[in-house]
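Translate sequence into structure tokens.
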Amino acid sequence: MPRTPTVELPPLVRLLAEDQRYRIEAYHFVGAGLEYAQEVLGLGRAQAKPRSRGKSRDGEPTGRAVRHIRGQELCHALKQLAHEKYGYLAKLVLASWGIHSTSDFGEIVYNLIRIGKMSKSAGDRREDFDDVYDFEQALVREYRIAKTE
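Result follows.
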């Protein structure tokens, strides 16, 4: 009987098959939230080792310092990003992806850590994401439309 080659699935695809609580959009949103927290909000303290970004033209390693974001900080950044992207519908959009509480952010982050798409430091705990805020309060009642000039 001929052997068929085994196709290795990308880690995120395997994760989505193993843990079907969250849609792929949830993972993309949390990843975007980490970048938003670091780049837009300037959150996080620099870690000692730089993250490699390849090599420059002269062969020297390029990169930027890894900036660690605590679980609570990431939750607040995700709230702000959800307000900016989805406005008053933020809670509904996140729910459609399987996200109903800040604990879900923690589950997603730790799934991404497990497949090597995010990292954690020694003091980080999954519980850091639990009950950071109530979604109804934070995403609906606290949402305000900003007047632009």
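Note: Residues 33 and 78 are 5 Å apart (CA to CA).
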